[in-house]
Amino acid sequence: MKRLSICWIIGCFLGLVACKPEVPARAELGETDVFPDYREVTVPVNMAPPNFKLVDQQLQGITRLKTMNRELIIAADQGTFNLPETDWKVLSQDAQGKQIDVTVYFREPQSDWKQMSFPIYVSRDSVDAYLVYRRIFPGYRMWNEMGIYQRCVENYVEKSVLNNQSTNNSCMNCHAFCGRQGERMLFHQRGSHNGTYLIDHRQVKKIVLERDGKPASFVYPYWHPSGRYVAFSTNETHQDFHISDNNRIEVYDVESDVLIYDTEKERVLSSPLLASKACYETFPAFTPDGNYLLFCSADSVCMPENYRDVRYSLLRIAFDPEDGSIGTQVDTLYNAREAGRSVKFPRVSPDGKLLLYTVSDYGNFSIWHRDADLHMLDLSTGVIDSLPEVNSPDVESYHSWSGNSRWFVFSSRRDDGLFTRPYLVHVDERGQCGKPFLLPQVSPDYYERSLFSFNVPEFIQTPILISKERLVKASRKEEVMTIKRIEGI
């Protein structure tokens, strides 16, 4: 019996050895497309495996990933290379600060092998562990199936934070986090559960805004680093359609202001410099030190007739977190009149050195503008980088920094012009950006098979604590705090 067991173990071992693929002894140099394109990208050491596939799935394939001390060889499964998580972790740990040399062998059936080699650079800079986004159909009407989701970047685990099938198909949007911590967040709901939901660990408070006796909505949010204040815009937004234009849809504001909510005193603050009838003010963002508020402002015009004339400048105003007082003058960081383009989504890196923002030819709803690009301003030198290595011929729009200022994620439609997908970029100590790459998924077919866009990608360092059931229960409660007075205007 013991002899049979030993023979069985030896047989299994030999079978495993026989199943391990071998790289071809001879292979000519060649080129073939892979998706997602992870060639020559810089990835974080703590990222999930970047599974990829041969675009021509009629090809047979073998890939070898090699570091100084490790090697992994995998045969393609119907054109797909699935990298085991444990093996990838060992490889990436070994390659920190260096690279993984990848060789892809491919051939048509019964043909000679060819090979293509490229590096994947592994940074010692880790990325925030979680990414939160809204999944929604990419059109303008199919919003009855959407949700806010949390994805662990270190593996492929995705969690539903809240979806609108549990809330009478209400629209939900604009999630934001305090200090990149999942414990404190907010989001908006529209429709029968209308309101802004402020979450502190497992406690939920719903607030609504009234202006001049009429319902109004908080829209684009940004937390103050202290956690006491949240800056919002309040926008009256309209939507029209192009008959013949490079852009399908036009979304624009006919009125917008910037307000600041004080969570401790439950009051709303503003200033004539943040809420003027002569201008559209929107997209607020505090600086990391909390002493300034950035926002975008454009001259108000007759809409929609003059929608192409609307261009937003980037302004800065002082803010005192001790008492919530707002400065009496604004500084211009980006002058739309001089530049001839329109800026939105200003985001300062957590270390305070770089300012990342979106520019387009006009307007403020960049996700529908194919000319929208990302630019980056060095705050110490004033030099603007147009980021040619990051941008594409299609849309680049919303973006979010990782807590160590070494990574940012942005939404892009570069793959097909329709679906918005999350791309990650490394930023080195000199402020130079690497090649963007898609957030890895278990299957390289995931994005092509998905009918959803990924909107408002936000990095967080700790997971969201509150349960979906608690949020659904809170949305159904009638208890709500209504704010009717705005101090300062």
TrEMBL record:
Pfam families to which the protein is assigned, alphabetical: PD40
Protein name in the entry: Translocation protein TolB
Organism of this sequence: Parabacteroides distasonis
Phylogenetic lineage: Bacteria, Pseudomonadati, Bacteroidota, Bacteroidia, Bacteroidales
